[in-house]
Amino acid sequence: MRRRTGSVPSNHPFVLTADSHGRRLLTTVDGAAAAAGLSTGISLADAQTLVPDVIVQPDDPAKTATLLGRLADWCGRYTPWTSVDGEDGIWLDTAGCAHLFGGEEALLKDLLTRLSHLGFSAQAAMASTPGAAWALSRFADETVIVEGDEMRRWIASLPVAGLRLTPEVASSLSRLGLRRIGDLYSLPRAPFAARFGEETARRLDQALGHVSEPISPRRYVAPFRSRLAFAEPIGHADDITRGLDHLLEDLCDQLSRAARGGRRLELTLFRIDGSVQEVAVGTARATRTARHLARLFQERLTTLDPGFGVETMTLSAPATEKLEADQTILKGEAGDATESMGALLDRLGNRLGFGRLHSLQPAESHLPESAQRLMPVSLEREEPAVSRWEGEGPCVERPIRLLSDPERMTPMTPEEGDGAPPSVFRWRRQLYQLRRIEGPERIAPEWWRQDQSWTGGTRDYWRIEDAEGRRLWLYRESGGAEESRWFVHGLFA
């Protein structure tokens, strides 16, 4: 595949060159240059001798690779299974997609026509195996679509170089009179592989379909995907919004049938100039509510530039989670009448970044300091691995505010004989006089963990209320030779 710049006439010889061991060699020639007798690998001096007015530009492999990758992304308008092949090729797996374009022949015609309008000269072929398609696209005299026994007959007349062999192996086969792929059909497999290598035999088997050859897509292919093509390119923001609404309805229906909800959605716009634009949104929890997802996309749509027009739009859900059907009210309408906390988190997360949003989640520990953890909302599960905050157990008796570090309090009266807190104590320069107490609750350190923050022995926790109605969570540290010490660890509402 080659592209001609707008400054180069279509009928004028054009080549790309690169330095090799002090010589400038031709790396790419267009059709006009090839017709004039030029080919890759010859020196620039020889080329200018044959065609004095040939147009020369330096080759840039990095830019070529970038352009080829962008072009492979653009081919996603036909199928999500696209991949770059070497320096000048693109794989397209069109299985299950050709009917969207009126069949395989119509798809190939549309592909080549659009590439021509973008300034590319390309050759294409369609076959049952990647190896056969590769050989036909490069060595066949016309654009062909073959399969089955017909494919075997078509590639038989092609040169052995069509098997993607190294120049050394192809030259060795030619010296033995094995110049066509069909010449290899009848050869005994074991001696053939022993002489020319297992790779050569494998390439032949791949082309004939005896050995599978999977194509790794350039991008992850989402299992849920919706596509919308326009008869005429669109460029108005309202048209893009309406197209997105249509895609969301279709995608959410797919998710509903599979009992799944989306966690990440990607919108892709294919412009008529061959460029591709993408925006994505994420959710804190799985959802398949089209109206809610449309609101998340609304702010991102303003960053899109339709250019001279958008031909195709696709919407995919690369990340999904299991989501059961929503509960409905008696009238059959959705039960959510107001915006849920999940919807608010989604809007904040897409605006600020989900990495900046955190929530406290219960953890499997009886220690107050370790009974919760700070977790990004994007990593939350609908059902946590441990029990929720609600329910039976000590978690309902924990203070609404837990101090990060327990603070020492000063007893002003002696301790009671049963280990109860002192009736009067000082904390944060204020005096507290007990009115009600409840406890104790003994908590011991987790012996199987090395917690540096737990320096004492067992703790006896008390819930107290002073004369002014202030409620605190105190504990007495015991188990050591020193005099027992009292700490404030939390505040109740």
Describe the structure in your own words:
The protein has 493 residues and is an alpha+beta fold. It folds into five domains: 2-59, MutS, DNA mismatch repair protein, domain I (3-Layer(aba) Sandwich), CATH 3.40.1170; 63-208, no CATH class; 225-347, Dna Ligase, domain 1 (2-Layer Sandwich), CATH 3.30.1490.100; 361-390, no CATH class; 399-491, no CATH class. The chain is 27% helix and 28% strand. The chain has twelve helices and 20 strands. The chain has helices spanning 31-35, 44-50, 61-74, 104-117, 130-139, 148-156, 167-175, 189-196, 198-208, 237-257, 290-301, 341-352; strands at 2-3, 14-20, 23-29, 55-58, 82-85, 89-92, 120-121, 225-234, 260-271, 276-287, 310-322, 358-362, 372-376, 401-408, 410-411, 424-427, 430-443, 459-466, 471-477, 485-491. The strands form six sheets. The chain has a seven-stranded antiparallel β-sheet with strand order 14-20-19-18-17-16-15, with no helix packed on it. A four-stranded antiparallel β-sheet has the order 8-11-9-10, sandwiched between helices. A hairpin with a 2-residue loop joins β2 and β3 (23-29). α5 (130-139) packs across α9 (198-208) and α8 (189-196) crosses α9. The protein starts with a strand and ends with a strand. Mean pLDDT is 85; it is low at 334-338, 382-389 and 391-395.
Shape: elongated
Number of structural units classed as domains: 5
Radius of gyration: 35 Å
Question: Percent range for helical residues?
Answer: 25-40%
Briefly note the structural class of the backbone: alpha+beta
